[in-house]
Design a protein that fits this description.
With 213 residues, the chain is α+β, with helices and mostly antiparallel strands. The protein is built from 6 helices and 8 strands; from the N terminus they run ββααββαβαβαββα. It is 29% helix and 23% strand. It is globular, with a radius of gyration of 16 Å.
């Protein structure tokens, strides 16, 4: 089911959204932040299929963001369960030393993923940059993670040079936790590491008395 924000309709990504996902990740101003080469249409189709499987198997995934008035594709964003592997395990040092951190989701297919915390991200077509849409998607993601799914934490990672995304993270309430070098996140050709920001459930609830349960 789609989620609505003030200006956006956020629709769960699946195979039927592959063309719209391509409009985002085929954007010449967008794809360099997500890999060394522009993805092929076939690769984006596989991503859309994988995102749909995440929704079906793990109850959460990425959205395509559409303008509520025009229907135009603004971007994609939302949440994802991270693999329970050594690379994402490096994020543990930014989270509380509590048992819930490394618990696996009850559904082990198509991969074994974390049960109690999610990764939050966004990508906008370049013509929509600087207009507050990433903030809108990010806030919707946090509300879905904590108020709908009852998550214990949300983590967001970005290339240290991506000052726009880092500013969005701070604007929506995530706190800077540190930087991460790893096989998965290490920058290309000596680029800087990834900036990691975190928001815990207790911090989310303290931010507004109406959110506490």
């Amino acid at each position: 089911m789609a989620e609505l924000t003030k200006r956006l309709r956020l629709e769960p990504v699946g195979p039927d959204n592959a063309d719209d996902l391509w409009l985002v990740h085929g954007d010449d101003e967008v794809w360099p932040w997500y890999g060394g080469t522009m993805p092929s249409r076939e690769q984006v189709e596989r991503w859309a299929k994988s995102m749909g499987e995440s929704w079906r198997s793990h109850g959460v995934g990425k959205w395509i963001a559409y303008d509520r008035v025009s229907g135009e594709v603004v971007g994609r964003g939302g949440l994802g369960r991270t693999p329970l592997d050594d690379d994402w395990g490096r994020v543990y040092r930014f989270l509380p030393a509590e048992p819930w951190v490394d618990v696996a989701h009850e559904v082990p297919h198509p991969s074994v993923v974390h049960a109690n915390w999610l990764e939050l991200g966004w990508a906008l077509r370049h013509q929509y940059w600087g207009r507050g849409y990433a903030t809108e998607i990010g806030r919707a993601g946090l509300a879905y993670a904590f108020d709908v799914l009852g998550m214990r934490a949300v983590v967001s990672c970005t290339d240290r040079r991506n000052v726009r995304s880092h500013a969005v993270m701070e604007r929506i309430g995530l706190r800077y936790a540190g930087e991460l070098w790893s096989e998965e996140f290490e920058g290309r050709d000596g680029d800087p590491p990834m900036t990691v920001c975190v928001l815990l459930r207790r911090e989310w609830e303290r931010s507004s008395p109406t959110r506490a349960r």
